[in-house]
């Protein structure tokens, strides 16, 4: 019984560590109203360390297959396809 309990505790510890590492590599952006309250019915975004901007659903799950993905390169934001490749036929979104 002690072995099973200690194994469960170790697994829970590894799961929490993995989530903490993932949070270090991402920044979340939320829609807010004029007084700063988060608007939960609008999608939020995750900015990854490599510059990819991914939309998320209302509970925070990444939508990597979404058509609305962007990548930050230098001081510009480019539209990308679902695997993160910059679309060359698209002009920069922000200059």
How would you characterize the overall build of this protein?
- By secondary structure, this protein is α+β, with helices and mostly antiparallel strands.
- The chain has a domain at 26-80.
- It contains 1 helix and 5 strands, in the order αβββββ.
- It has one helix at residues 2-24, and strands at residues 26-29, 44-48, 52-56, 69-73, 76-80.
- A 5-stranded antiparallel beta sheet has the order 1-2-3-4-5.
- The radius of gyration is 18 Å and the shape is extended.
Total helical segments: 1
- How large a portion of the residues is in β-strands, by DSSP E? 25-35%
What order do the strands of the largest sheet run in, or round the barrel if closed?
1-2-3-4-5
Q: Order of SSEs, N→C?
A: HEEEEE
Low-confidence segments, ≥5 residues, pLDDT <50? none
Quaternary class: single chain
Overall mean confidence score, pLDDT: 73
Biggest pleated sheet: 5 strands, antiparallel
How far the N terminus sits from the C terminus, by CA atoms, comes to 62 Å
- Rg result: 18 Å
Instruction: Tell me roughly what share of residues is in helical segments.
Output: 10-25%
Number of strands: 5
Structural class of the secondary structure composition? alpha+beta
